[in-house]
């Protein structure tokens, strides 16, 4: 019984040490620790797409299940250059029928980190799972074509970093939500191997 108590105490101390920024500049992580890489997407190559079709912002964010995490391609136009740079995140909720980006909730934050202090891109496992721009850089307008792999997001519904049916939101330099779309499963899926 004493051994179990000692192990619990050491585990809690180690977790507490990871949650704050140390004097030596160590990265801040979530209350549940660092994000874990996703290696069990059920269908490699499964495609999900968020389609932006506002009066100004048009295009897509495509998410494709990979053997590790998700491959993203951002292909949008219409982001006003004077309002950038733009942050982009996976938010908790889908965009409602009325298109109100404010109703997409907060960022996907599976490990309970919060957004302050800002994400340290050199330690992406310590960032909010949905803070894609914090991990991979902001974008400028008016046109964006950018691809990257995020090993911490998932297209497996049982994983903490699951992104299906969630909102993708672009924020301008003032943090206002200026464009949003929901990631939905594409009807055009790869053929089983």
TrEMBL record:
The record's InterPro entries line, in alphabetical order, gives: Cu-only_SOD, SOD-like_Cu/Zn_dom_sf
Q: Where does the protein principally reside? A: other
**Is tRNA-binding set as a keyword in this record?**
no
Protein name, UniProt field:
superoxide dismutase
State the family it belongs to. Answer: Belongs to the Cu-Zn superoxide dismutase family.
The residue range of the signal peptide is 1-18
Q: Name one GO cellular component term.
A: extracellular region
The record lists the catalysed reaction(s) as:
2 superoxide + 2 H(+) = H2O2 + O2
EC assignment: the record states: 1.15.1.1
In the record, what terms sit under GO molecular function? metal ion binding; superoxide dismutase activity
Alphabetic keyword roster: Antioxidant, Secreted, Signal
* Localization terms from the record: Cell envelope; Secreted
